[in-house]
Amino acid sequence: MPCALLRFFGETITKMNKLSIASIGFLAGIVGAVVVNLTLWDEPAADNQRVGHTGPPVRATYATAKLPGLEAVPSFNLAANASVDAVVHVKTIQRSPSAVHPWFEMFGYGAPDRVAQGSGSGVIIDPSGFIVTNNHVVADADEIQVTLNNNRNYSAKVIGTDPATDLAVLQINAKSPLPALAFGNSDDVQIGEWVLAVGNPFDLTSTVTAGIVSAKSRSINILRGDPRTLEYPVESFIQTDAAVNPGNSGGALVNASGELVGINTAIASRTGSYAGYSFAVPSRIVEKVAHDLVTFGEVRRAYLGIQIEPMNEELAEELKLSEVTGCAVVGVVSGSGADEAGLREGDVVMAIDGMAIENFPTLQESVAKYHPGDVVNVEFKRENRTLQKQVLLKNRDGFIEADESYSPAGNTESLWLETCQAEFSPVNPSVSQSLALDGGMQVIALREGTFSNAGIRKGFIITKINGESIEELSQIRTHFESSQGGLLIEGVYPNGKKAYYGVAVKN
Description:
Elements: H1 2-41, H2 77-84, E1 87-96, H3 102-106, E2 114-126, E3 130-134, H4 135-138, E4 143-147, E5 153-155, E6 157-162, E7 167-171, E8 194-199, E9 207-218, E10 237-240, E11 252-255, E12 260-267, E13 278-282, H5 283-296, E14 306-310, H6 313-318, E15 327-332, H7 337-341, E16 348-352, E17 355-356, H8 360-368, E18 375-382, E19 385-392, E20 415-417, E21 422-426, H9 429-435, E22 441-446, H10 450-454, E23 461-465, E24 468-469, H11 473-482, E25 486-492, E26 498-504
């Protein structure tokens, strides 16, 4: 019994000693941590020296590591406040007839139309009520409703669309000036710069998300061209990691100053929701397209007049170039601005008006900002020599639309035919002389209809119909009013390209 008691007291004392030691160690750790913390935040005095150090006093330094140019995350409240009222909610309704059930038809009842609803975003760009959005948001819509951030609703009409850039302009009639978002210069946007995406994802109005610019001049092959009109997509997106979801389409991409630098258009996702990649049309393209749609009702697009191939290492070696950048010219359109300026096959375009050309999307973006009639400085390499040329941009058919070449000077005579939805006029004498034409009538206006469906474009000069030379406007009317089937139309475009079209006529 005494041995057992002694063993119990001995074990108890041992445990208490261990606990005391641990407690003391724990307290020492706390004190040490406090001391270390105080040491890190308080710089030692000048006369503090290390033990055993015999040299001059040693001062401890506590510099914070910082990359050059690195700044703290900015506050976005000013940019958000400047933009949220200018971003609107766009709702669309599309109706299509339903198939009539035989039982309903038997009793004289028709089936109700099928109604499809959609939604997106838009940006007010003018206090009078002009709104830019995506073409895919309003395409084929029968009704469009716009809701402002103050919950006021308006009916909207489409001013114009441009499928090539997936942009559209709407207009609403408000009783008072609306808050509009100012355009920023997307050329100045830098990779790594902070941006905001403002829109209405999942019908959640006035949603603001933040991210950085991940890349520029991205082509993701989501837009489709129209072979009938020879309109091909212009893709040079700003890529960001700001969260964008369904409903954000047509909304604003805003810089930290509250300026519009892009229109959010697409996401890269396998699920249909945000997955870290979003894409916006640059504001320089948006501003130009919106201006054209409001002013002219169509986009007046400029062309250099070259066929290109993106540069790669193999092509650079073939052309004996030291850099793998730029776009190689593989063809020049006769009569184009590039042709007249002296560019030729084998040249490599390196910059346009100072904007470096690194790939095809960059080239598209650099030209898409201009109108026919504008002059740009093209820097290119030829046999490793750097050269520069001033190039007069023209439209696809060789016109300088800024000079109103479609309308013959001093001649107001024209003919509009409902049957083909086209307007005709005598050819400008200067154009006739350059093409060595004795006659012909020119298409000066065109709407969707017989001519456009056949592939005829504005500017086309009709020289013959069913083999008969055309010298008077009345001849065109006669052919269309007397035809019982189809017409073979021959002609030429102002750039010298000849064309033949078969046109069906219904009388």
